[in-house]
Amino acid sequence: MGDVVPVSREFLFDADTAVTAYHKLTRAAAPEPSANAGQTGQTGPATHPDPRARARPRPAFGFLLESVEGGEKWARYTFLGTAPREAWRLEAGGRVSRWSPGGGWSEATTVADPLAELDGLLRRRRPVPVPG
User: Fold this and answer.
1) Average pLDDT, the chain
2) Residues 6+ apart with CB under 8 A from 76
3) Residue 38 falls within a domain, yes or no?
4) Which pTM does this prediction carry?
5) Other CB atoms closer than 10 Å to residue 26's CB: what's the count?
6) Residue 74: inside a domain, yes or no?
7) Is residue 15 part of a domain?
């Protein structure tokens, strides 16, 4: 079959910018804070949670890509993503490393052609067929 499932949604940015939409997406992808997170520990009639402590942590990685066709008045596309299963990093000197949620960053290794390595990683992925 495949190991990449395309997920998409179209909507108008009437009240949002790409940045505010990205912010909302990253908030939705973050885990819920625990029920007692942010308690101030005050004694007395009421203990109020600290709203800053109850904020959800952001996912480790995400992206925001924009494209404009025919000027901003005709067509503008924004691609947003967050909480990937893997990340790839190119460092100085052609050193590359990979990240996963369970394993963190791998030790960086030097490769002859970093972009060819990235291309190989992407080509190994197979999208699931979708109608349309």
Assistant:
1) 77
2) 66, 67, 68, 69
3) no
4) 0.60
5) 20
6) yes
7) yes
| Dihedral sign for Cα atoms in the order 115, 117, 120, 125 | negative
Q: Cβ(125)–Cβ(4) under 8 Å?
A: yes
pLDDT of residue 80 exceeding 60: yes
In a domain, 28, yes or no: yes
Measured CA to CA, the distance from residue 2 to residue 101 in angstroms comes to 21
The verdict on 50 and 106 lying in the same domain is no
Domain holding 122, by residue range, is: 85-127
Q: Let me know whether 65 and 101 are in one domain.
A: no
Cα–Cα dist 75/119, whole Å: 29
**Phi, psi (deg, nearest 5) at residue 14:** -65, -45
* Half-sphere exposure (Cβ direction) of 70: Cα atoms closer than 13 Å: 3
**CA–CA distance from 69 to each of 13, 26, 66, 81, 106 (Å)?**
16, 26, 10, 21, 39
**Total number of domains constituting the chain:** 2
Are 64 and 107 members of one domain? no
